[in-house]
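Hi again,

Forgot to attach this to my earlier email, sorry! This is the prediction with S-adenosylmethionine bound. I've pasted everything inline since the attachment limit keeps bouncing my files.
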Amino acid sequence: MTLRVDVLSLFPDALRAYADTSVLGRARERGVWELFVHDFREAASGAHRSVDDTPYGGGAGMVLAPEPIARTIEETPGLARPVIALTPSGEPFTHATATRLARLEGFTLVCGRYEGFDQRVLEAVVDEEVSLGDFVLAGGELAALCVIEAVVRLVPGGLGNDESSVEESFGDGLLEYPHYTKPAVWRGREVPEVLRSGNHAAIERWRRTQALALTWRRRPDLIERRGGLNPLERRWLTELGLLESPDENG
Ligand code: SAM
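Structure tokens for the complex follow:
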């Protein structure tokens, strides 16, 4: 099955250029996903095909008018569902969102510009809103490409090697362990001995404890979300000096 992604944007060339590149480009060539970009300016009426207007209530900036976006969504044959608008006030986009979208037959992303969308179009024709994070971009295009790349990497065949996305950060609810390559000593910094030992069980254990320790230090919220620490994990963190005892609360 080929994942169908529709994107509504005022900058279709920017989207297509990146979608043709690297992982996304190769995955499209292999038929893993297909992209349909719709410039909703084409659905605007009037000599200037204007898509924005001044905000009711006053204030700076322009607001995207509802009709061109709604018409594009309603009149595009086969447009993929659900329809997802990129907005800073949407639900945070996470690995769980990407996993859910990767299992669908497709989805549509709507990119805003200026001050954003008229609220009524979000209510009338949009199924979900997602945010890339607590910051404000100038437009939804970069957010859409981030969503697409995160999703396509998880679709079977998306990376050309299904193993590659299995052990990454967030895959098992933890951040990923650190990586090293040659040389074994670089500017006085050595690759951990265990990774050069050839002892696969020890390497596996080291990686799991490092992933846990990194997550414990940087993102305790992720550990909380997966139900806290199990007894073995408590022991590992105690051995690493990150917990005073395996019974310590955390
Ligand atoms: N006035 C809006 C607000 O304060 O929430 C910001 C509008 S922003 C300048 C223009 C467009 O960029 C938005 O409509 C949205 O499509 C996109 N955008 C900006 N930041 C985003 C984010 N963190 N996540 C997803 N989309 C974002």
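Residues 86-89, 111-113, 115-117, 131-133, 135-140, 143 surround S-adenosylmethionine (CB under 6 Å). The two ends are 44 Å apart (CA to CA).

That should be everything now.

G.
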